[in-house]
């Protein structure tokens, strides 16, 4: 696996989120999975993965199923436990490109929930 996230892109992310994205991007899947709580939940692509074993399998499967690159588009710290990360994924899947919101819910130094869904469309009325 070739890392695709530019370290400068992740520089300003909160530490736990940065650690997860960096570990996953560099093929350190066990390290990425270790950042989740034992009872963590991941929602991705219409499926729910509950518990550390299911989340560990998801980390590997989602990172290796298709060749892809990830570009960090931005992030928002919603509150002291929630971080939204906007990414563009380009790869060998139908459509070839997807812009996704990854919502991390953290608690006491672990990821409790990660929800991955299509990014909301920009509001045409905002400046």
UniProtKB/TrEMBL annotation:
InterPro entries named among the record's database cross-references: NTF2-like_dom_sf (IPR032710), SnoaL-like (IPR037401)
A Pfam family of this chain: SnoaL_2
SnoaL-like domain residues: 17-100
Signal peptide limits: none
Residue ranges the record marks as coiled coil: none
Gene3D superfamilies: 3.10.450.50
SUPFAM superfamilies referenced in this protein's UniProt entry, alphabetically: NTF2-like
Protein name, UniProt field: SnoaL-like domain-containing protein
Organism listed in the record: Serinicoccus chungangensis
